[in-house]
Amino acid sequence: MKLTTKTFFAFLLGVVLVTSGCSNKSQVKEETSSKNKAAFQIVDAGSISLKNIRGIGYPGNDTALYIAGNDGLKLYKDKKWYKTTENQHDYIGFQAVETGFIASGHPQKGSGYKDPLGLIKSVNKGETIQKLAFYDKANFHFTAASYSGNGLYVIGEAQSDEVSLGVNYSTDNGDTWKKSALKNFNADSMGMMAVHPTNGNTMAMSTRSGIYFSNDNGNTMKLITGPIMVTALTFSGDSILFSSVENEKILLKTIAPSTGEQADLIIPFLDYDNPITYLAVNPKNTNQLAFTTYKNDLYESTDGGKTWNNLLKDGKNK
After folding, report:
1. Domains within the chain, CATH numbers bracketed
2. What SUPFAM superfamilies does the database record attribute to this sequence (predicted)?
3. Is the whole-model pTM more than 0.85?
4. Which of 4, 123, 214, 256 has the fewest CB neighbours in a 10 Å radius?
């Protein structure tokens, strides 16, 4: 059995590499309508039914696990599910950071925001958003951000005046952007990126031929695994937590980029056509980690991966 093209597209992006630069001056602005500001609440969600999971993470300004769906944020905390009552944007490329979260995507209809959102940030659980860059100009399926460091990354899917095709990075909160040179990058696709939690210059990328690692914003890359298909990755301290598909098995491992040393984590059995799509580690407690799958299953561990709780099955909690 082989993964379908549709499954590949869910987590890998094939793009042609080009050598042009990119810069963008974007005024950081926080916006919300008076209607949304008055109505915004985080309430008990009851039953959950998600058609598309866009990302997961543990923002530093909350104690909940955040799940970004096509209809806004869902939060899991103290064995209960919550949702927002307004600003139910389609948060594509969701990234949890110390002060909140960063994302791209499309606004909720009637919210007053232009489409696409570009790259935005929220520091109050989605009640308002700050425009970091590319507002009304671009949407990014692949974004990455350092949890507390200065490092933002996006993959431009098309060449434009605003963003270059390929990996673009910013070290000043999105004010200016450069294109990563990707020296020694030999993969035939680009995929999910991850950034070191405190050092924004250090990043990694999953591809169909392994994990590429960089200490200089993606300008120089190094393959740190064998030629395996890696579907998701995230940093856990200085190590990388990643999922691969090998010998028709879904695996979860850690790797130390400096030495290449790997260790396996035991996870519940996953069908070969249900690979892991998103991974999250809580930087404030690295024993707390979570992953989602292609079929919208969600698992969380609070003991470093020794045991797992199935929070969603096919996107549903009941």
Report:
1. 5-16+45-312 (2.130.10.10)
2. Oligoxyloglucan reducing end-specific cellobiohydrolase (SSF110296)
3. yes
4. 4
